[in-house]
Write a structure and sequence with these properties.
Number of helices: 4
Distance between the termini: 11 Å
Oligomer: single chain
Shape: elongated
Length: 138
Amino acid sequence: MNNTGQGPLLAQPLQRPSAGRIAAYAGLFLLGAVVGLAGALVQAAWFPGGLLLALAGAAGLFLGGAYATGGRGGAVAPVVGWVVTVILLSTARPEGDFLFGAGLGSYLFLLGGMALAVICATLGARRQPRGGPARLGK
């Protein structure tokens, strides 16, 4: 328990996020979709460098979203936008057109982006317990 009298963080009731936080999550979702689209185009254009650039941009957005909002939800919102966009771009259309070719770069972009999403959501900014800077045992 901390000194504020609110009890442990997990014992507190869930509250609806503020309108600003909802707008931030929606903006991060759209930004994730844009980064997914740009990454899909760049990774195929310049294979080794474009792939690294696309994955670095995605990782920067995921981790930056976590730090900007101060929680893991900031990393999850752009991840969802990125995954939805990349999955929709990888499906074939009825005419037979598709954006991703069946090559090593496409698979590395898909799997590498998903691995980065898990890493950034796990290592993102965590909510710290409130209270003084003393150790929890004191």
